[in-house]
Amino acid sequence: MSQLPATLTPTSSAEEKISQGITAEVPWGCLIPNRLGLQKVDLYDEEITFGRSLDCTVRAQEKFITKGRISYISMLHFIVNIKANRFPVIRDVSRNGTWVNGILVGKEKEVILQDGDKISVGMKNYTIFLFKQMIQQKDVPDEVLKKFVILETLGHGAFGKVNLAFLKRGCRPRAIKKLVKGKVSSNKNDTRKIKNEIKILSSLSHVSYSILSFLACSFKFFLTQPNIVSMMEFFENDEAFFIVLEYMDGGTLHDRILRRDCMSEKEAKLIFYQIIRAVKYLHDNEITHRDLKPANILLNSDNVETVVKVSDFGLSKVTENDTLLLTACGTPHFVAPEVWVYQYRGIPYTKKVDIWSTGVILYYMLSTKLPFVPEQSDNLQMLRNLIIRGKYSTNGPIWETISNDGKSILEKMLTVSPNSRADAEQIEKHSWLHNDVEMKEKVVALISDQELDGSIEQPCKRTLDDSIEQPYKRTRRIV
Q1: Per-residue pLDDT of the chain (479 residues; tens, 9 = 90+)
Q2: Which residues take part in binding ATP (predicted)?
Q3: Which run of H or of E encompasses 244?
Q4: Domain total for the chain?
């Protein structure tokens, strides 16, 4: 498992036991026979096999099979196992076919089993087992469970929780973010913020947004940007919103910084270049993130060189060019001076608050320290004063290893006056980034490699009118 973001807390011991899947005392599932003579099979082992062979865990014997049907069952017909101790999978290895709920699995292919699935062999309607899953999901809409297997909790907080999930067909990983309605927290993750995040992600992921009648405004759709996390689907019931996001296995930038004594300038530059590309894309499309911080930067893998994506748009704001923003948002250490000024004097600010935040992120990557830290760590007034003055240090052994260009780009971003502060385009064209052709080619290659191996997927672009499958009435869905 990747490390948890700083904003999330570890799962409880009970959840950990559930997510481990196999235990000596409790089966992870069972096969309930649909034919007389077949026995119930409790699934304790990682794998069971079914067929006519004496070597099979569960053997199909002629006296228990309908006359003439035994020839339809292969010596080794199907295998059921618990995939990586996480979720149950059935694999068809027969010549005559295995069906799950009337759908052919396909030779040497596999699908995830869900509670209540009917397993047929030889013929579509010849059901021999009903799969029973021991762990039930009670707080997730039926429509979500129809499509996904929900696994362990990656983390949780005041807003709700994030679970690892896999598509039943194709076994692709997803992160499902459950946001409980009406649950106001210190981070203001209330229904209004949730709807705003869905709106932003819908636009960025090219997911149909029209069904959200409560968001009665027109909103342009943009193409997917490879450094912004994609929302694949959205579900809603009376209790909560469920946002299905692409899964990033490398954890957060916050995790990586904490695990490292120091990040090299080369490594930091490759990550930062991807962040500023995402920020420029947002700003070009009149979106201000307003809560950029390492915990909201996701990594695709634990590799030193990896694809990076910006996430968590709950505090983002859609604006017109140069529109002034009128609310105080963000995480204190990464908040721009003008946001603090707004909080006390009501003076509005612009999208350049994101540039300041990216500057703080870069400083943090290069030094593993924050540029503005008061002597009393919990004193917000002292922190505010430090940020408004904009005084930070690039002295010390670590900074002696950083190039002049690296320090220069920091200065362009950590400028107190937003009018004098560089914008995203100017930062992207700064010599520290612009002249490093090798680094930029590496980023293109990393993204290209992910597209080739399927790690980067396009969100579903169908609307409900185009969908063959209509959603259940008790939930609403955007696909």
Answers
A1: 333 333 333 333 333 333 334 444 567 888 888 876 677 888 888 899 999 899 998 888 877 776 678 888 999 999 998 865 567 899 999 999 999 999 999 999 998 888 889 999 988 888 889 898 765 566 778 788 878 877 777 776 556 678 888 887 767 888 888 877 765 444 444 556 555 555 555 555 433 333 333 332 223 333 368 899 888 888 888 888 888 888 888 989 999 999 877 799 999 999 999 999 999 998 998 888 888 999 889 999 989 999 999 987 654 444 444 444 334 444 788 999 988 776 665 567 788 999 999 999 999 999 999 999 888 777 888 888 899 999 999 999 999 999 999 999 999 999 999 999 999 999 999 999 999 999 999 999 999 887 766 555 544 433 323 332 333 233 333 32
A2: 178
A3: strand 240-246
A4: 3
Phi, psi (deg, nearest 5) at residue 203? -65, -40
CA–CA separation, 303 vs 305, rounded Å? 5
Residue 462 is assigned to a structural domain of this protein: no
Residues 293 and 385 in one domain: yes
Looking at the structure, tell me whether residues 273 and 380 fall in a common domain.
yes
Residue 242 lies in a domain: yes
CATH number, residue 175: 3.30.200.20
For residue 273, the surrounding DSSP H or E stretch is: helix 265-284
Same domain assignment for residues 266 and 332: yes
> Both 212 and 346 in a single domain?
no
- Tell me if 461 is assigned to a ligand binding site: no
Do 289 and 394 sit in the same domain of this protein?
yes
Q: Report how far residue 191's alpha carbon sits from residue 239's, in angstroms, rounded to the nearest whole number.
A: 11
Residue type, 230: S
Beta bridge pairs of residue 47: 81
**Nearest CA-CA partner of 273 in 455, 409, 394:** 409
The span from the CA of 411 to the CA of 82, in Å, is: 53
CA geometry: angle 222, 228, 229, nearest 5 deg: 105
Catalytic residue of the set 92, 117, 255, 291: 291
User: Is 291 known to be catalytic?
Assistant: yes
In a domain, residue 212? The reply is yes
Domain with 146, as residue range(s), is: 1-21+139-247
301 found inside a domain? yes
